Structures are given as C-alpha cells and as structure tokens.
C-alpha cells in the first residue's frame, strides 16, 4: 500500500506544486517583460504604465493558488482522516442500490466543492474585480447565479454519474468502458446543442443582431466567408462584468456566434468584423469536429485507465473502502488519472493553438487586411488586463491561445506588413 499512497500523493501534491511554480514564474516573467517592452505596450495596447496589469495578475494568481492549496488540503484531509470512508460506509448501510448511493456520493462531493469555492468567488468578484473595475454583479444576481448553477450542474451530474455507474454495475470492464465512452462523448455532443439553447439563457439574455449598421457588417463578413448570416447574438455580459469576449459554440443548426455587448461597445466596426471572421474560421475549418475528436480520444484513454484501476483490489484497500462500492473506487481512480491529464496538457493545447493561428489567418484573408484583427486583439488584451507576455512553460500548460504579441506578429506577416517593435523578443 505504501507505494500506491506515495504515487497518489506524488501526483496530487506534485501537480499542485508544478502549477504553483509555473504561476509564480508567469507573473514574474510577465512583469519583467512588460517593463522591458514598454514601447510595444504603448504602441499596441496604448498602455504607458503596466502596473495595473501586473497588480491584477498578482491578485488573481495569488487567489487562485490559495484556493488550489486549500482544496488539496481539504481533499487529503477527508481521505486520510477517514471522512470519505465513513461517508461510503454510511451510504452502504442505507440499503439503497449502489447506483443511487453513488449519485448521492458524487452530488455531495459537488456541493462540498461549491461551498468551499464560495468565499473565493465572493472575494474574486466583490474585492478583486471591484478593485480593478471589472465587477458589475449585484449581490442578488451573484446569489441567483450560484443557486441556478448549483441546480443545473447538480441535475447534469446526477444523470451522467447515474448512467455511468449503471454501466459499471452491469457490465465487465471492457464493455462498460466502451459504453461509458459512447455515453460521455454523446453527452458532450448533446451539450453543444443544449447549452446555447437551454442553459446559457438561464443566466444571460441573447438578442439576435437585427437590422442596422452592425447587421450590415455581419452580413458582409458572412458573405465574404461563404456563410449565410444567421445565429449571431449579442449577450448582456455587462450585467456581470466589463470584460470583453466573443465565442462560438454548437454545430449544424445549433451553431451560433455570441458577441459580448461590452465587446460591441468597445470595438469599432472593422474590428468587430475581424472578430466575427476569426470565429467563423472555427466552423469553416471544422475545428469543432477536430477538437471533439481529440477530446473523444482523450476520454477513451482516461476511461481505459479508470477501468484498469477499478479492476484492482488495492484501489479499494487504499482507504478501506467496501469492494462493492464501485462509485468510491471510481472516485479514487479519478484522483490518480486527473493529474496525468494536467501533465499532458501541453500536448492537448497544441491543437487549440494551431486552430487559433489558423483562425487568425482566415480572418486576414476574409478582411483583406490585418489591422482589424490587430486592433481587436489589442483592445481585448488591454481592456481585460491580460498578461501579454506569459512565461512559455506556463503558457504550454495553461493557454489555448498564442500570446497576443505572437498573434499580432503573425497577422502582420500574413497581411504583408512588417513590425520593428520589441515584440519579437517575447515568447512564441
């Protein structure tokens, strides 16, 4: 047992240590590079003094690290003081079917995780975001979001966990792993339809872009990109935050592009067109399906590893768990597998990085000019107080978009432009 305990602790503590080291390196590297690249910040982000960005990065990074270590301490405490074992034994004594026990177990874990996260979310929203003038959320809206989020996520977790546990209880390892893979991938695809049409509207209002100058620009971009102008919405993000963003989601008739109202307000017409062209590239180049395929492959490996661990006796003996409580074994198996996903994140992120570069290139082709995308990226970075110079190791593990200076440089090269700024010294 000692070897297995050492492995589990090494994975959980080791990945948290790695994340901490990378986060500290990232903040220090970003601060140093911002001071060294003052001319670039002034030219592209219109920032003369980077102190606000540096302070924001320190505040958010520090808060995130404290939350990570508190969460890890509580998890290890619950495991090694016998709290988890006592809960499993209590559920085992209720006489409920194993699947029902498992659903209650995972729902309890989810609620506990959310409760632990409440003070951190409150501090992030009403202290950090308030200090840096991002917060637009009222306490009443925050509470509403919390309650609705708990209910929606709880229902989804209960359904997926129940179905997966039923497969584990019914079939041998190879069959339940295959069935579980089909279940999870199918659910992932279903969420691409359900989220934009059912879940997201529970939190925000989405308005189709109607007639007017913005609609004319939308139609022009769609026409140049080879699409019909439909399913483009603005979202009332300003109810909660002043941050700028846009995203795409879905496929088929459920696909849509969503523009934050804050983005529409801050960006000029050509810059909005550039953002739209970038988002359309994810459809045009089949990025949705490629990412879905990569995620499905990753899930297959994860479920195979979990299936192997569930077939071992030591997994249950590790914390004196009843062998018939497959849901408890599933929980411990996931604790072994999740750190491995974090360690392999750079491999997975490479696909997203390639897609973002391809989307930027497509936007330049559609617009016939690089300046709209350069302007949009510059405003997104400055308005959101993003770190334009992330440490390359941190970026490899955490970023699915290339650094802003690299994106601007590549866009300008694609557009046949040249830059003589210090941006070439930044990490690629």
TrEMBL record:
- Residue intervals of the CAAX prenyl protease 1 N-terminal domain: 52-204
Q: Which residues form the Peptidase M48 domain?
A: 209-413
GO BP annotations, alphabetical order: CAAX-box protein processing
Q: Provide the protein name.
A: STE24 endopeptidase
- Binding-site residues, Zn(2+): 278, 282, 356
**Which family does the record claim for this protein?**
Belongs to the peptidase M48 family.
One family from Pfam that matches here is: Peptidase_M48
Q: Which organism is it from?
A: Halovenus aranensis
Under the heading CDD domains, the entry gives: M48A_Zmpste24p_like
Q: Which residues form the active site?
A: 279, 360 (proton donor)
Task: List the Gene Ontology MF annotations in alphabetical order.
Answer: metal ion binding; metalloendopeptidase activity
Under InterPro entries, the record lists: CAXX_Prtase_1 (IPR027057), Peptidase_M48 (IPR001915), Peptidase_M48_N (IPR032456)
Q: Which cofactor does it need?
A: Zn(2+)
For this chain's record, the cofactor binding note is: Binds 1 zinc ion per subunit.
């Amino acid at each position: 047992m000692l070897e297995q305990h050492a492995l589990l602790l090494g994975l959980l503590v080791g990945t948290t240590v790695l994340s901490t080291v990378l986060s500290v390196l990232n903040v220090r590297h970003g601060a140093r590079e911002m001071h060294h690249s003052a001319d670039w910040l002034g030219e592209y982000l219109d920032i003369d003094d980077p102190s606000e960005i540096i302070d924001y990065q320190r505040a958010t990074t520090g808060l995130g690290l404290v939350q990570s270590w508190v969460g890890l301490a509580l998890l290890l405490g619950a495991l090694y003081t016998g709290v988890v074992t006592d809960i499993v034994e209590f559920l085992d004594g209720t006489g409920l079917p194993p699947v029902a026990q498992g659903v209650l177990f995972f729902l309890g874990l989810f609620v506990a995780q959310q409760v632990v996260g409440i003070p951190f979310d409150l501090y992030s929203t009403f202290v950090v975001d308030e200090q840096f003038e991002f917060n637009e959320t009222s306490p009443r809206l925050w509470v509403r979001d919390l309650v609705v989020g708990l209910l929606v996520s709880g229902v989804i977790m209960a359904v997926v966990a129940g179905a997966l546990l039923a497969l584990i209880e019914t079939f041998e390892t190879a069959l339940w792993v295959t069935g579980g893979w089909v279940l999870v991938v199918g659910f992932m695809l279903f969420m691409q339809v359900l989220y934009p049409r059912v879940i997201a509207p529970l939190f925000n209002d989405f308005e189709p872009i109607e007639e007017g100058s913005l609609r004319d620009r939308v139609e022009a971009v769609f026409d140049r990109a080879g699409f019909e102008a439909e399913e483009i919405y603005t979202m009332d993000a300003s109810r909660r935050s002043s941050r700028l963003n846009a995203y795409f989601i879905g496929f088929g008739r459920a696909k849509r592009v969503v523009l934050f109202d804050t983005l529409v307000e801050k960006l000029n017409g050509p810059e909005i067109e550039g953002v739209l062209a970038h988002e359309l590239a994810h459809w045009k180049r089949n990025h949705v399906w490629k990412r879905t395929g990569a995620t499905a492959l990753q899930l297959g490996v994860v479920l195979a590893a979990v299936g192997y661990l569930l077939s071992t006796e030591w997994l249950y003996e590790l914390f004196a768990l009843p062998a018939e409580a497959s849901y408890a074994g599933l929980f411990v198996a996931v604790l072994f597998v999740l750190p491995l996903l974090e360690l392999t994140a750079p491999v997975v992120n490479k696909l997203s990085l390639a897609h973002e570069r391809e989307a930027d290139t497509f936007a330049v082709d559609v617009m016939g000019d690089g300046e709209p995308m350069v302007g949009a990226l510059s405003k997104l970075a400055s308005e959101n107080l993003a770190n334009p110079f992330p440490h390359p190791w941190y970026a490899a593990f955490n970023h699915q978009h290339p650094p802003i200076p690299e994106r601007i440089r590549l866009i300008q090269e694609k557009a046949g432009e040249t830059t003589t700024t210090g941006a070439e010294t930044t990490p690629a």
